[in-house]
Amino acid sequence: MEKDLFTALRERRSIYGISKESPISDQRIQEIIEETVKHTPSAFNNQTTRVVLLLGEQHNKLWDITAEVLKAKVSSEQFSSTQEKMNGFRNGYGTVLFFEDQSVVDIFMKQYPSYQEHFPIWSQQTNGMHQLVIWMALEAEGLGVNLQHYNPLIDERVKAEWKLPESWKLIAQMPFGKPSAAAGEKKFNPVQERIKVFK
């Protein structure tokens, strides 16, 4: 990875123009995901996040399934723009699926009853950390990335198609590929209004 941490963070953007090319090997993409899953922190070290990498026809299948599900949910007038969006994601090289294993969350809720209401929140937080680390790492390797949330609409179809455990709850979908279009302008609210420092 040639970029330093904050360069990768600054340059991490939602890239919707992506192609079926990758500047890095499938093995390198898998290494990024494995390192992220191994080293990203979680509450009580409960390691609840699960990740699925879809490449090639498996990636295409995800967005075909999503289009099928949405076609049954939206009007025919709206579906043309929805299909265009699905085609954009399908045009990518691959997709990372993020899950939380609710069976592990439940175990920790029972094991630590004083904190039980916090474990579902902490579970979402660790998933978000996994998402950001993988996003930054893929961006640093020259890939364009965006993040989608078609859950819970596609959850059952996804679990059935890839024979995933029932306890895995889908959190987000991350299509990626070689950028074919730049990100739009990003606006920032004043940092001074969002941070307080006390010395």
TrEMBL record:
Keywords for the protein's UniProt record, in alphabetical order: Cytoplasm, Oxidoreductase
Localization, UniProt: Cytoplasm
Oxidoreductase among keywords: yes
Organism: Cohnella zeiphila
Protein name: Nitroreductase family protein
Gene3D superfamilies referenced in this protein's UniProt entry, alphabetically: NADH Oxidase
A GO-annotated cellular component: cytoplasm
InterPro entries on file: Frm2/Hbn1, Nitroreductase, Nitroreductase-like
Domain Nitroreductase: 9-178
SUPFAM superfamilies: FMN-dependent nitroreductase-like
GO molecular function (one): oxidoreductase activity
GO terms (BP aspect): cellular response to oxidative stress
